[in-house]
Amino acid sequence: KTIIHANDLVCEVIVKPRYTSYTEPYQVWGASKSQVKSFMSGYTLKGEESTTLVYLGKGKVNAYVYQFENAVLKNSAFQVTLLNSANLTDFLLERYWVIDVEDKGNNNFYAYMCSVDLKTYIMFNLTSNGSIVAYIPAESIKSSKKADIKSQLREIEALNIGACHLAFP
Q1: Neighbours of 166 (CB within 10 A)
Q2: For residues 105 and 22, which has the higher predicted lDDT (pLDDT)?
Q3: Residues β-bridged to residue 13
Q4: Can you tell me whether residue 30 is helix, strand or coil?
Q5: How far apart are CA 60 and CA 23, in angstroms?
Q6: What is the rounded CA–CA span in Å between residue 106 and residue 14?
Q7: Helix (H, G, I), strand (E, B) or coil at 28
Q8: CA 76 to CA 61: how far, in whole Å?
């Protein structure tokens, strides 16, 4: 929602997303576990370790994963089954700018994206098993080189996939 002033005219513009089938994870970087738990209070906690929280999802989302370092939120992710991935690309494209796309073959596709405010990077991985969307604060990326951003996002995705396997063996 914004107000545009042009000449002597004032216009309020409200943008509503077309795709609303997914609920993104909590993304207040530096939040405590208790803040994340409060945000996720309507969800079932499936697994908890000192550095990880895993919740059962709702609707099209299978699970949410939160990773902590030094007791603060460092990254988050959500996982979707293949059957529920149909509009996930459209959902993300409405909200994020594309940095790069990779087709790894064997039905393995990566998209690297950034929030409009440049505060969050995400990686979307679509495979024949489903999708995972990993979120990481831009301030934690050590380099602005595209290859470094992609490498760090893949590391975060691996951590989140591992956490999902803890909760869903």
Answers
A1: 14
A2: 22
A3: 2
A4: coil
A5: 9
A6: 41
A7: coil
A8: 14
